[in-house]
Amino acid sequence: MSLIFDSQQIDPISEEEKLSEKILTFIRHELYMELRYMEPALSVLAYRKMEGLLTFATDGVYMYYATEPLFRIFRKNAFFLERAYLHAVLHCVFRHLWLAGRRDRRLWNIACDIAVEMVIDSMEKNCTKRILSWLRIHTYDALKQKPPCGDTVMPCGKNKERKGISAAVIYRWLKEKPEEELCGLEKEFHTDDHRFWPTEKETDTPVCIQTMQNWDKTARQVTLEQSRRGDEQEEGEELFRAQMQAAKNRRNYSDFLKKFTVLWEEPHLDLDEFELGYYAYGLQLYGNLPLIEPLETRETKKIREFVIVIDTSYSTSGELVKGFLQETCSILSQKNRFFETCSIWILQCDDQVQKAVHIRSTGEFEGLIGELQIAGGGGTDFRPAFSYVEMLQNQGEMKCPDGLLYFTDGKGIYPGKKPEYKTAFLFLEDYEETAVPPWAMRLKLEPEEWMHEYQTGKRRD
């Protein structure tokens, strides 16, 4: 009798989950029929029941749902479930879950929801179509036509409106909004539950890193599938593609600096590299002659010789320059990425090199930031900085740097010749992709991540 009773308790739950998975599979199939290039992303998330939810939620691994709301909404408005499902998947495709950093979580959630809904509303597909409210129309127009928080619109061509508007750009725009307006936007664009999004500390765990890498791979597959469609792409898909590019550009600055490390020997006494027993036996037997000497050097990957060029033209803010240098110094110091003997050149350049400072330790780096005086204010020409590095090499004051970082707004004359060292341009805003030389690395920085720390004098833990 007890076995029969137990089976009666288990079977209804199992049937609910089976029916729920059938509904979710149907939703995924409906989305796939109209968005075939999304197939690699739509099939990633596994389903997991989680009672207490009112809508979908995800952590990048599972699509969480509650049976009662799922059944009720499916009977009344299946189109909402299709939009909500796609909404949660696009958060993962755009890597919103892992890019919050130290941003205000509430504002970041609203910004991500607006960014995703803007893409979905622009798709004009039967499975996602809805009548736009006045607030949505007004919000989209404001973001397309007016550069948020002083950003410069960098269109794909002349007289074209801005296509790609990332969640980070929307976040800066939201920071200027009053509380009443934020509440309205939060209510209008809320679609899924973000409770399972990782915190800043959790994003460094192996599980989160692996999950994000899996979505990086999935995003590349989606981009490839979309590119195969050729001329079939519509306006909404152009916005989607621009969002994908924005997500690709927002790589972590700290990880980006790893590209400039080199493998080199440095003095180091590693007591784990030799057997103490043989070492002591040699001293006992021969007096002062150990049998095995400890290793006095080790090979490590750090930065040895480096050049940082600051664009000091009229369009670059002195506060942003100091904030950028402070963040760079903080990362390189805490991650122990400089060798004990290092060489760092910091150049200030507009249309010519205005000032050059040579430092040999992170301590000197920090002292320089506190006394930094911006020199320049003219036009922007990137070529003089590269010529200056070449001059230093010819004079024997510099060998071959591990890399050169050029902090700029991107509006200038690029060199035509590829240097023999790694070069990266760091941009504060949207930039014209085709203007940057193909041999140069590029990274779009998000200044709100570190400017607040510089202004308040706080440092990262």
Uncertain stretches = 1-12, 147-162, 452-456
Tally of distinct domains:
2
Mean pLDDT: 77
* Shape label: globular
Report how far the terminal alpha carbons are from each other: 60 Å
Beta percentage is 5-15%
Largest sheet: 7 strands, mixed
SSE run:
HHEEEHHHHHHHHHEHEHEEHHEEEH
Brief write-up:
The protein is α/β, with parallel strands linked by helices and 461 residues long. The chain has helices at residues 2-34, 39-42, 67-76, 78-93, 105-123, 134-145, 167-174, 179-189, 206-227, 235-249, 253-257, 276-286, 318-334, 362-370, 383-394, 451-456, and strands at residues 46-49, 57-58, 62-65, 262-267, 297-311, 338-349, 353-359, 403-408, 423-427, 441-444. The chain has 2 domains: 16-250, no CATH class; 255-261 and 303-456, 3-Layer(aba) Sandwich (Rossmann fold).
Structure description:
- The protein has 461 residues and is α/β, with parallel strands linked by helices.
- Helix 3 (67-76) packs across helix 4, helix 5 packs across helix 7 and helix 5 packs across helix 8 (179-189).
- It is built from 16 helices and ten strands.
- The longest helix has 33 residues, at 2-34.
SSE arrangement:
Layout: H1 2-34, H2 39-42, E1 46-49, E2 57-58, E3 62-65, H3 67-76, H4 78-93, H5 105-123, H6 134-145, H7 167-174, H8 179-189, H9 206-227, H10 235-249, H11 253-257, E4 262-267, H12 276-286, E5 297-311, H13 318-334, E6 338-349, E7 353-359, H14 362-370, H15 383-394, E8 403-408, E9 423-427, E10 441-444, H16 451-456
Parallel strand pairs: 1-3, 5-6, 5-8, 8-9, 9-10
Antiparallel strand pairs: 2-3, 4-5, 6-7
